[in-house]
Amino acid sequence: xxxxxxxxxxxxxxxxxxxxxxxxxxxxxxxxxxxxxxxxxxxxxxxxxxxxxxxxxxxxxxxxxxxxxxxxxxxxxxxxxxxxxxxxxxxxxxxxxxxxxxxxxxxxxxxxxxxxxxxxxxxxxxxxxxxxxxxxxxxxxxxxxxxxxxxxxxxxxxxxxxxxxxxxxxxxxxxxxxxxxxxxxxxxxxxxxxxxxxxxxxxxxxxxxxxxxxxxxxxxxxxxxxxxxxxxxxxxxxxxxxxxxxxxxxxxxxxxxxxxxxxxxxxxxxxxxxxxxxxxxxxxxxxxxxxxxxxxxxxxxxxxxxxxxxxxxxxxxxxxxxxxxxxxxxxxxxxxxxxxxxxxxxxxxxxxxxxxxxxxxxxxxxxxxxxxxxxxxxxxxxxxxxxxxxxxxxxxxxxxxxxxxxxxxxxxxxxxxxxxxxxxxxxxxxxxxxxxxxxxxxxxxxxxxxxxxxx
Amino acid sequence: xxxxxxxxxxxxxxxxxxxxxxxxxxxxxxxxxxxxxxxxxxxxxxxxxxxxxxxxxxxxxxxxxxxxxxxxxxxxxxxxxxxxxxxxxxxxxxxxxxxxxxxxxxxxxxxxxxxxxxxxxxxxxxxxxxxxxxxxxxxxxxxxxxxxxxxxxxxxxxxxxxxxxxxxxxxxxxxxxxxxxxxxxxxxxxxxxxxxxxxxxxxxxxxxxxxxxxxxxxxxxxxxxxxxxxxxxxxxxxxxxxxxxxxxxxxxxxxxxxxxxxxxxxxxxxxxxxxxxxxxxxxxxxxxxxxxxxxxxxxxxxxxxxxxxxxxxxxxxxxxxxxxxxxxxxxxxxxxxxxxxxxxxxxxxxxxxxxxxxxxxxxxxxxxxxxxxxxxxxxxxxxxxxxxxxxxxxxxxxxxxxxxxxxxxxxxxxxxxxxxxxxxxxxxxxxxxxxxxxxxxxxxxxxxxxxxxxx
Lengths: 455, 455
Known about the structure:
- The structure is a homodimer.
- The mean pLDDT of chain A is 92.
- Chain A has a domain at 363-453: Anticodon-binding domain (Rossmann fold, 3-Layer(aba) Sandwich), CATH 3.40.50.
- Chain A contains 18 helices and 16 strands.
- The radius of gyration of chain A is 29 Å and the shape is globular.
- Helix content of chain A is 44%, strand content 18%.
- Chain A has helices spanning 16-35, 49-52, 57-63, 79-84, 87-94, 104-113, 158-174, 185-194, 201-209, 211-225, 230-240, 246-256, 261-278, 343-352, 373-388, 402-412, 422-427, 445-454; strands at residues 39-40, 46-48, 66-68, 95-99, 122-131, 143-152, 178-184, 285-288, 302-308, 317-322, 336-342, 366-368, 393-395, 416-419, 430-434, 440-443.
- The two termini of chain A are 51 Å apart.
- By secondary structure, chain A is an alpha+beta fold.
- In chain A, the strands form 3 sheets. Chain A has an 8-stranded mixed sheet. A 5-stranded mixed sheet of chain A has the order 13-12-14-15-16. The first copy, chain A, has a 3-stranded antiparallel sheet with strand order 2-4-3.
- At the A-B interface, α1, β1, β2, β3 and α4 of A face α1, β1, β2, β3 and α4 of B.
């Protein structure tokens, strides 16, 4: 009868302490989003497959979790088509819904569907899980949360600036030192155009992306292998050798790609963003990084990525501008820009650097030991008093052995234990024990309230 | 190319104002749960079907959303078995996972799986969506949130008392007048035993449950139809005719079922709970209601249900004690008690009674009008200042026509608009407009901060 219980691979349970830390991250980003005037939405876990399919490439289609139609889903199929069916073909006949793969496509669908009710520019954030049938591995899950913030319906570069401010604010609050890397798709297009290889923008970007890892010689070799002409590679060298401050880099690029209209526009956009930011008191480091590509087919302007300075881990936040996200659903000409915070990686970095505040844990602050019926009755109004003051408290529900009760408080990380036995009943005072220091005081409930509220 | 976008039937998008109101409910219950020392957990949206199947009855099995195995899921099947397959049989071969149907079974699975790491009694809460392939209809959705709070690993009736306190606290905060109905499975068993129909406890309870709607004559008829003897029906009459206060009712029942050991224990439990509560300052009305059955096969002791006094709608909170929830997963002898808040119904009731605080809406408090590049630059540090003070603010990102910008503020429900044009640039003062009253002031940023923080 008894099954050994387990959960699907690649999924996780979150226990109280993990949840408390995760909530610390979610609450922090949410608070920043809200103070910047962004509003929360939620979309359903299930979307129609017609909404999802074809939006994430062929590989993405395979990684969608598909939901079996309800009821007698085979009844509409004849035996023959069933016998001949491949998995792929059968799927289209027995499944119409899939689980959300990211928050961006559902957001685009939402905007198009609600275009008449929304006020543009629409500033929304969304914090929800997404599901991908990826092969599970360390740090990669089949269910994970994304925290997305986007402005849709405005071309202004001020929006890019605000997103960078948001990144800065979030990591400042969290106490994490970060580099915000900035690039622009238009500059990449300008580079490809300048070297006479406008169609090879993807190959060129992929090669540039490896510069840090494999060095300039190997990058040149790879470009040649991809069929980029020697002349074009020659022209690319100043860009591969960029150095100096962000402004110096911008000046150098502008000189190289000055004949590309789109490239010059891209440089101008990045310059404007840096101009805005120069008057703001950012803590994060800003870096123009031409090797930054991220979902290149997707972004049309700014591209952002954030890395931790102290922990070697992939991008912890990323995003960019997309000029025609809602076009796939029939609403064209609406430009958007957005970023996504990766809660799982941020969690890992914060754990590694011990950045979670100790009081982000979730146990009650005070536990009253239960010595029996009479003492319990005496404790009840005291517990109620603490709770009314917003001090999380509990009364151990059974009059178990003292040792068991203290062990409970200890293992849960409860900071204070209130002991009320015979002598305390008589004196009306509470034996109040600090579980960390071991210090005990005989005090009244008012003193407990003022001590704890003073913390 | 363009698809007309839609979402699966029975699912919903939540727009900013709906989200803000829903968060008001979630935040309220969460805050109460936490001050009572409950800790949050989360479980995956997907569970193994072996965990879910058979836990919700035959009907429940059908209502589970099942997830198609990834990859070439047909490859393991031979053509013959495919051709002969019924939907039900095929499902077991092509689907191993399902979406969470409630929070209780995943919680039981979690407790068993983590029994060595948990500290018992374990006080947990969980706020997550669940999915059911029910026929969608008004007020019934295929995706909806549950807010569950349970104590597992303690028999003490104090736990029942705390859950009632939590119900009282939540509805007090929300401003909703409620009746908390209490029953006990042991009393129902005692009644069935007393009238000599111990095996017919379900039939009897179903009949009693209809008392309010169809009256005592019809109830008696129905019992006779179900095969309950005339003698037993006769014995049942005093219970159907119960009247008076909760204590009077308890006394009457106790007299009738005094020969049933389990019945007397049940009466004793309810009496103890009322005793505890009598010294507490509850706002909610408590009512002993013998017709309350709710998932009878499930509960073994206390049964709770909460109804709004002012809106005719089903139960808005419910729960009870279950002595062997984790037994299905191989851990027996662990008693639990819990309740679940129905966020959707609470939402509907609150809308109907206009109980949401006006400031539960989510728009920024202040919008700065954008008159152009120069004014924008002047505004940026002012917006930053307000945000640093925790006042949610935005600067309209484009220098659109004034009318468009004011319309934006209006439609979003932004309370204050800051206008900084030529003359304000010169004076350094801000033309600050209250969008509700229309009142305008020429003031400095410090005054704005102190006015808004004083609100």
